Amino acid sequence: MPLVAGIDCGTSFTKAVVLLQENGTPRVIGKGRARSGVNVDEAANQALQQALNDAVINRSSLEYVSCTGFGRYGVSFRDIQVTEITTAARGAHFANPASTTILDIGGQCTRAIGITETGKVKHFKSNDKCAAGSGMFIQRAAKYLEVPLEQVGDLSLRASHPQPISSVCAVLAESEIINHVSAGVTVEDILRGIHESLADRAGSLLKRVEMKGDLTLIGGVAKQAGIVKAIEDRLKVRVHVPKDCDFVCALGAALLGLKRLASKSTVAAEAS
Amino acid sequence: MIMNTVLDSKMERTFDKCRELLEDLQFTAVREWKRAQPGRKAVAYFPVYAPVELIHAAGMLPVGLSGAGDRLDLQYADARFGSFICSIVKTTLEMGMTEHLQPFDGFLFSSICDSARNLCFVMKRNFPQMYIDFIHLPHNPSSPATPPFLAAEYRRILTCLEQLSGHKVSDDDLRNSISLYNRNRALIRELYALRATEPQLVRAWESYLLVRAGNLLPVEEHTKMLEDALQELRTRALKKRDSIRVVVEGSFCEQPPLVLIRMVEEAGCYIVGDDFTLGQTWFETDVPATGDPILELADSYVNRSVYSSVRHDFRKPRWTALVEKVKATRADAVLFLIAKFCEPAYFDYVPYKQELERAGIPHLQLEFEEKLFTFDRVRTEVETFVESLVFD
Amino acid sequence: MSEKTEYRGSIHQSQKDLMLNWYEQLDRAATTGDPPTVSMMISGNCVELLEGFGAVPLYPEVNALQLAIRHQSLDPILAAEDLGYAADNCAYVKADIGCMLKGITPTGGKLPTPTLILCNFVGCNTYLKWFEHTAKLTGAPLYVIDVPFMRTDEPRKEDVEYVVRQLKETVEKLEQLTRRKFDYDRFRQAVDCSRRSEDLWSQIKHLARSTPSPFDAYFDAITLMGPLYVYRAKPEGVEFFETALAELQAKRDAGHGVYEREHYRLVMEGPPPYPYFRTFRDMFAKWQACAVASTYSTVGGLWEFGFRHDPDHPFESVALHMIEQNVTNRNYLQRYEQIRRYVEEWNADGVIIHFVKSCRLFSAGQGDMRDYFTKQLGIPTLYIESDLEDPRYFAEAQTKNRIDAFFEALEHSKATALRGSA
Questions:
Q1: Whole-Å CA distances, B375 to A36, A73, A236, B256, B370
Q2: Which residue has the higher pLDDT, B252 or A245?
Q3: Domains and CATH numbers, chain B
Q4: Lower CB count within 10 Å: N or C terminus of chain A?
């Protein structure tokens, strides 16, 4: 019964899962989370320890540790590092095997991933050029509109006449928002407009990864109900948000760890 | 083992020298070359291709400039070229405005793209003391009138170069220059062939340094350097890495930062083919050093050139040539490494992509700027790409 | 107010009729295969040559701008981006290719697959890519006329010979493709028609030297440009420009300008933002500012400084037109000089530089141009950025503010100058 861990070292939070494989079926038995801070190694340790406590397991019984995310190279006790795109694909595929398209809306970057039926990355496309296409833009808009971030999703749902934001550049988009405010457009309609514009932009990324069937939505913004609705309406697609959408990458890393363990081939992480 | 260490440290010194050469915005080597024999002149050229033989035959030093990388902050050029214009155009102008081009007596541009072409004339206005010229490299290879036209164009340029150097150029001078550059290009082809057959022996960034140094060194000196390096590289005892084989396409003009090339390799790729500093690998076979040398040079541009996003040859599409290159180098995939705002590369990406997909060749598109400072995202994308090809 | 600013004589209607008739011919060509069609670029086009085959030109740029002006450009642009074109590729190309993918045409009629894709490469490197890609998409044959760029003060003898040789190869190619014999006499007649149209067009442009100018040499000139590119080599074109000249001359003689009172005279550099054409125009109309000259209206040909096609040397004059007498194949400094002459000879108050992100030919280096006009010549110059086809790059409020600020400053300096001279 192989026991492995996956750690996702993100820019804000480090997430860990402990995975146990019984009769060929992997199962998450512990989860942990820590603020990433400046020391990746320390954060990874903390998150992992939490997950081990959660699973009531000793560190010594872990057979393999896979790391992913921004800080993946900073974890000294890792067996392997894999990118967050590869792990997002594996984790999302595990959570929802029917879906072959993943949309990851993060703070800095929105990413579309097309995967094979076995969870391998086939295509991916990131939108890193325009800040107007990512979560950070929502944060800035919420700040400007004086709305707490956690209310953005629900407010957006209450819109009656969404006002689209057509500019692709964050600076221009912000001046559009200002124009909307001075034209008396409601906060709800503006927020929904932002969500719809984000959805449209995601749509063109998704087309480039040949979107098929249901969509799995992950990343911090996935928690906003408004964006889910906007994507469903605008792109005419069913959206699936995994229960622990923050842990998808850590889970994917752990799953790949299981595979590596099984193939017995140890790929030494090149110390760089 | 000891032998290898000695060899390697000798190679290291060569690489260091090359790196110093191409990072030196004062162009100390060019200044020294001029100082060694007062009255000698140096002529710079903008990528991608220039008939360096003409400059050489006129007794001057041809220098291939590839922007200023990340070593120059833009104070003037941003205001002159505005948004949506690639970095190399701006850093080249900036070098002029900050007197970094002082060692150069002339500057040649050619018909590669609209931004570079406009830059030529903007530079003419701003630096009237310098000989600046524009070569119309033809885009219709099928007409019998094309080689004679280009020969006439080269003769016009040669007359200007003769005036600049004060040295009349004979056909023998030209044939001699052609032979020297033929030898140089043959060695570069050899280096590329070695990388394709034994990629563990020479890393792409090492090969890149060796080749690009030729943009700044006299051809005789560079040829010697290549000869020595090829001999030494072959004796290296380096073990094979677990890497996929890729062809890099799209970096023919603005050059990616060296760290980016290294990063691609560290992320698990052997770069077995590329179009870095493409002008130096421009001809597929030797330019005949016989007959009318100007006409031979012109004819070679029309009929012996490698495929390139800045040369339009509708007799044989570039996309067919790319697929052939992938097969010839036995590459697993293509990495598009495209300079930001490089319109020729952006355009060609579409037909390239279509043809690669038709041939079942995986590919990944990446964008860079010569002054890129953060590589995390690019690294993640290359690693993901490699992972998608190696994991079950 | 906006109604007043636009010139609407009888030529407005005949312009529409001519263009509709053109689209009908294209529709017929698409349905029946007749007449033969040749796609070409506007810049330095050699439409005269087509007359020798009774072939009709197909200008993808005209289609693209028609779409933009009708606010229909974004969908095809997005379709092309889905195919892999970059955000920073020319949006004219993306709109055109997007239309092919989605089967959209500006009039709703059909557009033929051209008998020949003839890339007249006149300075715009994007043309090469554009036509190469459409040839790949449609399977139509491609020929490139490589026109040497104006890198010397005068065209070189070798340049002219080279282009003439390629024009003759084009004739051979078209003879094969159309299975028609090239009618040299008809070609000469076409060249002569062009000469006459150009002469009339040049006279029209010189009318704008009067104060007030009877028409806007940027916004109104665009209306006249369609017939200029499609019909100048035909008797209908000559007739059209005769009427246009007569109407505008009458207007000038009566002292009627574009506005109640012409307040400012401008030279415009760069293509217009077609997706916001009207909005943009109104930003100048507000200040009663009239364009008296524009570089964009010389894309197809530069005739106001005296060049004409020459029926005695038909091939050579077509070659000269392609090499020297259109703004896109002239070098940047020649464009500075063109604008400088406009300011001086057309008596303008300032220069507006409109940077369009799609077109590096026009826009790369316009900051230097601004430097030249403001610092070296002391001419008030405004530099604004948007796009000619992609509606996503027009920042309305910002653009308006910049234009208003420019005119406020101009007004102030005019008032100061008046006080100074009083």
A1: 20, 14, 35, 11, 12
A2: B252
A3: 33-167 (3.40.50.11890)
A4: C
* B121·C363 Cβ contact <8 A: no
Among left, alpha and beta (phi > 0; psi -120 to 50; other), residue A250 is: alpha
Percent of chain A with pLDDT over 90: 56
Does a structural domain hold residue A272? no
- Search chain B and give the residue with CA nearest C383: B82
For B:251-270, CB contacts with A below 8 A are 266
Q: Which of C84, C391, C398 sits opposite A175 (nearest CB)?
A: C398
Q: Which residues of C touch B314 (CB under 8 A)?
A: 132, 135, 142-144
Asked if B350 has any chain C CB less than 8 Å from its own CB, the reply is yes
* Same domain (yes/no): A233, A111: yes
Same domain, A80 and A111: no
Tell whether C146 and C225 lie within a shared domain.
Answer: no
Evaluate if residue C5 carries a pLDDT over 70. no
Structure confidence at residue A267 (pLDDT): 44
DSSP structure class, residue B308? B
- What is the rounded end-to-end Cα distance, in angstroms, of chain B? 37
- Residues C292 and C256 grouped into a single domain: yes
Residue B262 has pLDDT above 70, yes or no: yes
pLDDT band at C10 (very low <50, low <70, confident <90, very high): confident
Same domain, yes or no: A202 and A120:
yes
Q: Decide if A269 is inside a domain.
A: no
Please name the residues in contact with C366: beta carbons below 8 A apart, sequence gap of 6 or more.
Answer: B82, C269, C270, C353, C355, C383
What's the domain range around C361? Answer: 189-415
pLDDT in tens, B23-40: 999 999 999 999 999 999
Instruction: Give a yes or no: residue C422 inside a domain.
Output: no
**A208·C395 Cβ contact <8 A:** no
- Same-domain pairing of C256 and C311: yes
Q: Is C420 on the interface with A (CB under 8 A)?
A: no
Q: Does B312 touch chain C (CB under 8 A)?
A: yes
CATH number where A43 lies: 3.30.420.40
Classify residue A271: in a domain, yes or no: no
Q: Contact, B55 vs B159, CB < 8 A?
A: no
pLDDT at B1 over 70: no
Q: Is A204 an interface residue toward C (CB < 8 Å)? A: yes
Give the mean pLDDT of C270-298: 97
pLDDT at C419 over 90: no
A75 with A161, same domain: the answer is no
Residue C145 tokens read as 């006329």
Looking at residue B164, its pLDDT comes to: 98
Q: What is the pLDDT of residue A270?
A: 43
How many folded domains does chain C comprise?
Answer: 2
Query: Average pLDDT over chain B, rounded to whole?
Result: 95
C90 vs A147, C94, C331, CA distance in Å? 39, 7, 20
Looking at the complex, report in whole angstroms how far the Cα of residue A87 sits from the nearest Cα belonging to chain C.
Answer: 25
Query: Which residue in chain C is spatially nearest to A164 when comparing CA positions?
Result: C392
List of chain C residues whose C-beta atoms are within 8 Å of the C-beta of residue B350: 83-85, 133
Sign of the Cα pseudo-torsion (B309, B276, A269, A33, in order)? negative
B392–chain A Cβ distance below 8 A for any pair = yes
Could you read off the pLDDT of B175-188 as tens digits, one per residue?
999 999 999 999 99
C2–A contact, CB cutoff 8 A: no
pTM of the model: 0.91
Residues of C in contact with A204 (CB under 8 A): 78, 81-82
User: Which chain C residues contact residue A172 at CB under 8 A?
Assistant: 395, 398
